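Posted in: Structural Biology > Protein-Ligand Complexes

Title: Requesting predicted complex, zinc ion in pocket

I'd be grateful if someone could produce the 3D structure tokens for the following input. Sequence and ligand are given below.
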Amino acid sequence: MTRREEIIKLLSEQSFSLQQLANHFKTDVADLTEDIAHVKLSIHPLKLLSDPAFCKKCGYVFQERNKIKTPSKCPRCKSEWIEAQKFKIG
Ligand SMILES: [Zn+2]
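-- Reply #1 --
Done. Output follows.
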């Protein structure tokens, strides 16, 4: 099974943040963003769903749904305490 196939399998079962996937594959997040982008295109007619990232300090929700990377800073309160976006296939 290729890594992309395994990502598809994992995300079909439960939701994962990029960091959790990176831990699972013992790689870094940057290395996975390309795979996720590819997975997103290859799973048609299924969809890559995501729970948006949010600021754990003020509750600000990041609504930029097309971005894969987790934002590093809250635009409202400047906190860097961000709960990562989680991906799922459905
Ligand atoms: Zn905030």
